[in-house]
Structure formats: C-alpha cells, structure tokens
Amino acid sequence: METRYNHKEIEEKWLKNWDEQKDFKPAGKGPHFSIVIPPPNVTGALHLGHALNNTIQDILVRYNRKLGKNTLWIPGTDHAGIATQAVVEKRLMQEEKKTRHDLGREELVKRIWKWKDEYETRITNQLKLIGSSCDWDRQRFTLDPICAKAVRHAFFNLFKKGLIYRGKRLVNWDTHLHTAVADDEIYHETVKGHFWTFKYPLADGSGYIPVATTRPETILGDTAVAVHPEDERYKKFIGKTLLVPFVNREIPVIADEILVDKEFGTGSVKVTPAHDPNDYTTGLRHKLPMINILNEDGTLNENAGEFKGLKGEKARAAVVEGLEKLDLLIKVEDHEMQIGKSDRSKTVIEPYLSDQWFVKMDMLAERAMQAVESGEVKFTPARYAKNYLNWLGEKRDWCISRQLWWGHQIPIWHLNNEELIINNEELKGVLDKCFANRSDVHYYKSENGEWLVCSLEEDLREDSIEGLKLERDPDVLDTWFSSALWPHSTMGWPGKTEDLKDFYPTSVLVTGRDIISLWVARMVVFSQENMAQIPFSDVYINPTILDGLGRRMSKSHGNGVDPLDIIEKYGADSLRFVMCSICTENQDARLPVKKEKLEDGREINISEKFELGRNFGNKLWNAARFLKPHITDMGHEKSCKSLNLENPDSDNLEDKWILSRLNTVIKETQKALANYRFSEYASLVYHFVWDDLCSRYLEIKKGEISKDSSALLSHSLYTALDLLHPIMPFITEELNAILFPNSQRLILREWPSANENLINAEIEKQFEDIFAIVEAVRSVRGRYSIAPSQKIAAIVRSSANLESCRNMIKDLSGLSEFDFGENLSNPAFSASAVIPSGEVFVPLEGILDKEKETLRLKKEIEKAESFIISLNKKLSNENFVKNAPASVIDGERQKLATQRDIVEKSLAMLKELEQ
RNA sequence: GGGCAAUUAGCUCAGCUGGUUCAGAGCGUCUGCCUUACAAGCAGAAUGUCAGCGGUUCAAAUCCGUUAUUGCCCACCA
Description:
Radius of gyration: 37 Å
Structural class: alpha/beta
Helix content: 40-55%
Strand order of the largest sheet: 6-5-14-16
Strand content: 15-25%
Largest sheet: 4 strands, antiparallel
Number of strands: 32
C-alpha cells in the first residue's frame, strides 16, 4: 500500500465493480426503502448544491441498503420547459444569429432534444462519479414516453372532474419569449423611474381630474378612472365621463375604495384592466371593458392608435411627449419602483390578458395541507412545514399553460368552427355522436363558448369529426406539472406496475427549500389525487450552498462549482464527507472557493474546506496500512468469537474502553441517521476513527501487537468501515477488500448493531482519568520543549493501582521510569499537575523553571477558586437546594470537592516550589 | 408589508431535553518533533462580554420579549 491514499484508480475500480455486480438494484429482503431523485434540470451541468443533495440521498440509500431493506433510488432529469428553451434560444442567437421563428417549432424542439441528450449525459456522469447508487436502468426524463403518458392521464382526469378550466386572465407575459410565466419565474428589480401627473379631461370640457401614473403609455388602455367614494375633492366627479387622450374614448369616473388610497399621489387612479393586476380585479368588480393594447412581442397594437408599433421606453416617451403637446402634463417626479423581470429572458414582464389553462386549487390544496397538519408528511427541519402550509393556504389557481415549444403539449383539441359550418349550439350533438363510445375523450364548453375536447390518446386525429377540423392546442404545460407527478410517473403510473406495488409511496424526499411550494406541495397534491395516498412520509430539506461571498450557488448566477473539479483534486469521498458534515439544522452553508491551475493548464475550482475529508481519508488509509500485517482475516464471525465479545475476558482497561466507545458510536450513529442529523453522523465516525482508534488505542497497542489485540483492532476497524461506508463508499470498500478479503463487500454487508452490554460509562471515565496522567506528562514536555525522543521519568501519587496500565502510560508519555504509590513523596525540582486520580510529578532537575511552574500553578488555582465561588454561591442558595433535582445537586457537590482538592494540592505544590 | 432563519475563537461552523461531561470542532496562529501507519502527520499551547438591552428561572449561549445587522421565502403600492 502507498503512504498516501490515491483516489483516482480506486474510485474507478469500485464504480465498475458495483455496476457489474448490479448492487444498485433493489434486492433486500426487508421492507422497502425508496427515493426518487429531485430531477436536475437539463439546462446545464450540476454544481455543488446538487452534489450535496445527492450525497445525502446516497447516504440514506446506502445506509438502508445495509440495513437489509429493499432499496431503490430512481434517477432522472427534468426537461425544465422555459429554462431549457431559453438557454437553447440564447445560444441559437449567439452562434447563428437566429431566432426560434427562423427555425420553426419542429426544428427548435429537435435542437433542444440534442441539448438535452448532451446535458443528460453529463449530469448522469457527474452523479455516477459522486458515487450515487441509483438504479440506472430505471432512469427517467420528465418528457419521456412513460412520463408523458402519466401527464396525459393526470390532465385528462382533472379535466373530466372539472378541475381544469380555460379562461382569459391577466398573466405575467414575457414579451421576449412570448409566453406566460408563473409568479415565481419573476424577480423584482428596484429601478429609478418617474411619476407623471397629468390632466384627465372631462368629456364635456368642463375641467379635469389630475391623475398620476408610473406607466403613462397604459393610458391608451384605460377604461375608467377611480376615486375614493369618501374623497371630498372628487366626490362630485363620480359618474361623470372622461375622455382618454389620443384615442378619445369615453370612460366613466368610478368610486372604488379597494383600489384607491386617498392619501397616495393625487388620490385618483387610472384603471387599465388589461395591463395591471389591481386594475384587472377592479375591472371585474365594475364590469369594465378590458382593452388590450399590446401585441405578443410587447409592441403597442392597433388599439394604441398613432402609437402603434412602439415598444417599452419608446412608447412611454412618445406618450409623455404627446401629453405635453396637448398641455395635459402637470408634473414629473422621480420615483423609485419595483419592476418585474423574467427569470429566463431578463426582460420586463408585462401584465397581459390572454387565454390560459388553470387548475382549480381550493379542494386540492386543502387536502394537501391536511397531510402535513396531521403529521402524515413530516418535514425536517420542522419549521419548513410552515412554508408549505402558508403557500398552499393561498389556494390560488395554478396557471399551467405556457406558450412555448418545449414541453408536454396540452392534450386538448379545439374545434375550428370559424366559418360556422355548424351552429354552435348543435355542436354538442355532433360531439356526442362522434365520441359516444369513447371513455378516453371528454369535452366541455368553456366560458367563452368554445368547445374543448380532451383526449387521453396521443393522436386525436384532425379529421376525427366529419366535416369539422380539430386543431390541437399549441400550448405546453408548465414544467412543474410533470414534476408534480414524478414520484408515481417514474414508477409507471397509470399502469398498475410492480414498482408501484413494491416501492410506493417513497420513503423520503430530499430537496432544497426554494422549491417547497413549487414542487413538494404539488407532488403531495397530485399523489393524493392520482394515487389516493401521500408520495412520501418524510421531507428532508438540505441546506443551500453559498459561495464565499454568501451568494446562492446556482447555474443562473454562474458561480456554480463543478463537483468533478472537487473530485479531481480531493476525491469523491472527500467531497461526500464534507457535504455530510455541512448538513446541520442551519439553512445555509458557506463554501469559500478559489481557482487553481492544473499542470495540464486547465483551471479548476477548489476549496480548502475539502481538505478535511481528504485528510481524514488519508488517516484511515494509513491506519489500515499499519494494521495490515497484523490482521489475520478470519472473517467477522470467527473474529468476534475469538474475542468473545458477549463476555470479554480481557482485563485490559483499554480493551474494554475501545469496545465501549465502538458500541457507543454505533448506537449514536444510528440515532443521528434516524433523525437526519448528518453532520453529527460524520463527526461521530470521524472522532471515533481519528481520536479513539488511531490516536489512543492504536498508539497504546502499537508497541507490541498480540493476537488478541490484533483481533480487537481489526474488529474495530472492520466495524468503522461499515459505519463510514455510506459517507465514503470508495475508500472503505477498497480497505475492506485489502484487509478483509474474505469478507462480503461493504455495500451489501449488514449494518453493525450496538451491543449495549459493552457500553460502560464507568470504564470510559476510568480510562479518561488514567489518560490524564499521559496528558499531564505530555504537557510538561511541551512546556519545556523536551523532544519526544528524550526519555524522562514521572511519579504519580495515587491510591489507584496503575500496574496494568504501566506500559501504556510509559509508552504514550515517553517515560524511562514510572513509579506510583499512595505515599510517595514528591521529588525535588519537579513539574507537577493535579489529575483526577492523584498528582503527577516530573523531576526536572537542572531545567525546572520555578517561575514558569509557579505561574502555571497560580493560574490553575485561580481558575479552580473562581469555579469554587460560583459553586458555593449556587449551593448556598436555598432555592437551588430546594428546587433543583437531587442528581444536579449531588453533581455540584462532587464538583466542589474536586475543585477543592485541586486547590489544596496545587497550594502544596506551590509551597514545595518556593522552598 | 407578512413569514422563516442567522449573529458563538482570526475564518467556516457545532452546541438537540436550560445545570462547568458546555463554551467546542476543523482550518489558521505559536512552540517542539522526519517518535519504526500517516508532515495530508504527532505532541503541546494561545484565542471568546456566546450581537445589544430587558425578562422568566434556584440556574440562560440555550426559553420569552425587544433593538440592530445580515440572508432567504411570500405578497406588493397607482
């Protein structure tokens, strides 16, 4: 074995081995444990945030596989509708100076599939190299035929139930991508704008109402001006008629106390129902006409009269200029305001009236809320349940249509009846006749009188109805629609598949907090609707990874770090170990990153943080390297028998101690994992291996390794490899193969169980007390800079019989002589220390620095005395003695006695020194 | 505006059921070591008004209130 652990070949070797042996396939005899991956978007490659998310999932999967459960992890990717189309369109523009319209729908979609193939391959490769033990044969894509079938079924069922409807609504319109986008696909930017106040002339020419606006161009779409009913200034105008400048439309002055705040601006509001959310609801309240003044690309349309064709800032400037010319402008003020921009195209979002598809959420949301309120679905950390409930509580209908080309096309066909071939009223009869025997077709008349036909079949043909043309709705579904079905669509729903029977519902969902509402909530909704059960019982929300500046690591920020960079430099196990350590209850984890140039000229991202994992792996590697010649691989069973673990006959304190430590760690590890306390899990194993096993037990035994101690050492390491395998699968599997070649591979080997009989707090304390002697001597050594190679003598005054620990103390402290006894007198010129079991003296004639020792002792005394004061204060407090539990009081008394002992003995030492 | 967090060593962060096993870890710093597994290591050491203020309690880093600063989510003002 080499002195350093070299990850590259070993990772490759085990990836191949596990794959060949089909270890990632479910094969356990126990109950099922299943996870579906949060499918990464195919917009780009994975970053460290994904590495964290998938490391946690893999830890859970590997742990449960070792517990013997029938374990399945389904991988896959998401088509990420608008995001992917935007990325591909952007590249198309950069590289070929073409828009999607130059290509056409079919060709663009073809290009996006190519992009998808490329990135899906990259993502899959990244996941594999991290060590993700997914069943790769079950890999899904949200747009593949299996998922598409689920989408059509889900849509059809909801349509049939009347839970999906079509209507003209005000939506967020992306004028660049020509599509509706969801509220959560918008970000807000604060910009410096203006606040224009102008005169709204009365139709009879008798005056005007002053009105203020930040968007003067929308005047062209005004259909009313609203004032507060109680506003003395404007009361008299209510019911009068105004004239819209430029277009000379007559509009009413209305009273509306919801829209108007008397105190704000001029106290009067122009109402543009087709281009502002508040005005829209006002328009509905007052049954105002809604005039759309925009084209899909954001330019003003024919309703804008002379301004037709202008867009954005230009349109605004032209309208302002026009107002000025008409002498209607009163004043212009600077005004800071928030504008919505599209996440994907970075262009200004326009509120826009258009026909869209919606899911009615009230009943569905209510049911999904109950699942969490009742505890059926449990969040960890628990606080995130609030996030989920708050959002669902709004019960807003979900706009599921997008005017894109990349996605699941809505399974709806419109009847083209423009030429009124048939009287609209007679259409129902025609449809009934045509689809009478079709349970896979459903239709209804929408609120605007149009007949909509929904089909489960993929290819409802254009000529299905004689004499009438069917046209498929060009819209696609919001990407979250297919994501919402992910847990059951991946398993083959609506089929009644074996997978659904064996693995549904899934065990836990591991995801980030940013998509609790977008995704987690909707999965619960759709699982309840389609499967009549919850999709998972546990939701673990992993922390968000931030860069060194505290910004969220993400593809769109461009600050994402490729996990393969980290793997290249530190190894996959190091990456995983640090990811696991990072997962505390906190919501963020900061990860300072820097660039490094490799020998081959490539520049990669690294972070010192990962040295923790690399160093730990190396430590483990070297411990194994040292033990290798001493280990006789008799197999775990025999090894345990030879140790007689049920009733160890060894009298050695350190042997009992390491067994107690080992079993404590097994127990606590199990507990940490059951509670999703990943950081604690990593820390437990780390400190057991490094501190207990290497720094102490191994150091004690290394002088002479007997048959017994080698069995115990190998047993400890053997078990530690099991405990560590879910976090660091590669190095542990390799070491297991090197040290225990006759043993089963770790990936499938049974998880160790704790033997409570071997856990002994008393032994652990005894060991610590004795180890304090070693530490006291080492401390003296450090204080006087005595090299480890220079042997010294030490004397311990203690009533304890230290005979059995003589060698251990001598070896670990580098002693040439060691005496102990109850009545030993302390040697002259010695450095000394008080320990729980007595006093330690190190004779240092010639080099003892009295001042140094005095100072140290005084400091020690000072510390103990201040402690004594606080203990006395506490113990003399009547209320404390009366109220505190007896065990706490006893503990405090014990502490007081110990501290007094320290002071007493230290004072004696001080006196001795001064002589 | 509503909600959720964070503030602990120079840095990154633990600290769950309140009690000196609780004031910690890793990195960094200082001292001494190539001690026959590991210098990616070993041994020793230094470093803190637990953000401020108030409260509850016999007892507060921990519970409550409040202020400040920071971050995130949701909703948004013509």
